[in-house]
Amino acid sequence: MTLDLLYSRIPDILVADDTLDSLKLLSNALSERGYDVRSVTNGTLALASARAAPPDLILLDIKMPDLSGYEVCEQLKQEALTQEIPVIFISALHEPFDKVKAFGVGGVDYITKPFQLEEVLVRIQSQLERYFSLRQVQTLNNELEQRVEERTAQLTEINRTLQQEIADRQRIEESLRESERKFRQISEHIQEVFWLVRYDAELQGFSVTEYVSPAFADIWGKPCEFLYENPRGWTETIYPEDRQRVDKAFREQVSLGSFDEEYRIMRPDGSVRWIRDRGFPITDDQGQVYRVAGIAEDITERKQAELERDRFFNLSLDLLFISDRNGNFRRLNLAWTQLLGYSQQELIGQSFWQLIHPDDRAAAQAAQEQLNLGEPVNTLELRCRSQEGSYYWMAWNTVPFLQENLLYGAGRNISQRKESEARLVHETLHDSLTGLANRTHFMQRLEMAIKNRNHNHYRFAVLFIDLDDFKRVNDTLGHLIGDRLLMQVSGILQASVRDIDSVAR
Predict the structure, then answer these.
(1) Angle at the Cα of 378 (from 421 to 371), degrees rounded to 5?
(2) What would the pLDDT profile of 71-116 be if each residue is shown by its tens digit?
């Protein structure tokens, strides 16, 4: 099918990719299919091009040299001129986290490299059809309201002549019918459900279903006649645990100007789907709501991705957190409770700093300064206080997302490793029988004392002690008694010196 049959004009597509082969492949393929294509090689040029002449769709690589695709998309979504442009991410990043972030910053689709060109083209066409359809629906809705107002004004002006009034009415009604025909043609080709209901102010709800697009049957698994015959049937399809919340939200939000809720529905086959439903009130000349128009879309795949992310988050044995840039916790996984004993309610909103051992805060401050510069921190070893007051050694990896004002971190318990290291160091530097410093440790201390003497005129003495007749004790009473004697003498010597002195064997 040619583009002029699908769209009101030739779609304009902006492609941003710093990989020239990929950029050339996409640009040539789109141009061959009749699209107007603009190609840029970095995020800065992509922003400039989109602002200068907003395209109908943007293909955006994530990893680019100056601005990442995430940053470009965030800036586009913050500007009124470009915030409605659909953005499809194309990237070699394939982790669930990358996809969730892409949708979080406003992307409508995510394609991983290497990609199948035909799949990319189909997805592009799908998003363009949706984009043009939504724009046409908005235009037709405005046109419909304008024509109704024109009709009322005209009927008032030509009330003197009944014949003229009838002629004008017929003309306006024909225009409305034509608009309705166009509207139906558009709404029947979008994947979302477009709906229009008559609003009853006394009931604070809808009384008649005036229109529901065919996509309802695909998503809900019920024919459209189900809602025409039973307008309240929509509520019956909502998952029981969500029903009261959604019904209350519709009653309260429509009168305030908009309705936007996510909820689950039960299909006739027992399967569950997630829906995002948005409604917009239509008011009469007195400002009273008499109709509500809306769009419902199936977000099951997005929700499943979110649930999968949450499942990994909560199943991890490492301590995971999301905090603001100052270290105030926003989200924690269950491992915090299992290791440190705190409930999530106790820590959400609290500062990470209150858990850090006082002797480790200097290292933590240095890490905080590094994060403030946008640099990740890897394997930062800190002691963290448990609810019982004891401390655990933790190794932290933290990544900053400065534009979101967030820190993402993961910590692993290394207390056993630290204890093993300390025990190994002690065994390496101390005599196993007496616990005194061994020859290696003694030589280290002696070398340090000599350096202090040279620099600070420090004076010290070295005393070598030998036990008289110790060999006779070993030979006559045995090595066990000899070992006990050594231990007693070691204790006496250790008790006889100052804390700053050293006794070694």
Answers:
(1) 135
(2) 999 999 999 999 999 999 998 887 888 888 989 999 999 988 888 8
What is the pTM (predicted TM-score) of this model?
Answer: 0.38
Total domain count, the chain: 4
Largest CA distance in the chain: 140
Task: Measure the CA–CA gap between 424 and 412, rounded to whole angstroms.
Answer: 21
* Alpha-helical regions (H) of 391-478: 415-429, 439-456, 470-477
Q: Is residue 254 part of a domain?
A: yes
Q: Give residue 34's domain range.
A: 3-115
* Same domain as 111, residue 14: yes
The CA distance from 278 to 150, in Å, is: 28
Report the side by side order of strands in the sheet with 259-266. Answer: 205-212, 193-200, 289-298, 272-283, 259-266
Angle between helices 43-52 and 69-77 (to 10 degrees): 20
The helix (run of H) or strand (run of E) holding residue 303 is helix 300-315
Q: Are 371 and 400 in contact (CB under 8 A)?
A: yes
Q: Which residues pair with 275 in a beta bridge?
A: 263, 298
CB 206 within 8 A of CB 200: yes
Sequence-ordered alpha helix ranges (H) in 33-83: 43-52, 69-77
Label residue 272 exposed, middle or buried (CB < 10 Å: 0-12, 13-18, 19+). exposed
Whole-number pLDDT of residue 317: 80
Alpha-carbon span 95 to 102, nearest angstrom = 11
Rounded to an integer, what distance in angstroms lies between the CA atom of residue 41 and that of residue 16?
A: 6
Tell me what pLDDT residue 143 has: 81
Question: Is residue 362's pLDDT more than 90?
Answer: yes
The Cα–Cα gap between 243 and 249 comes to 10
d(CA 452, CA 458) in angstroms, rounded, equals 6
CATH assignment of the domain containing 359:
3.30.450.20
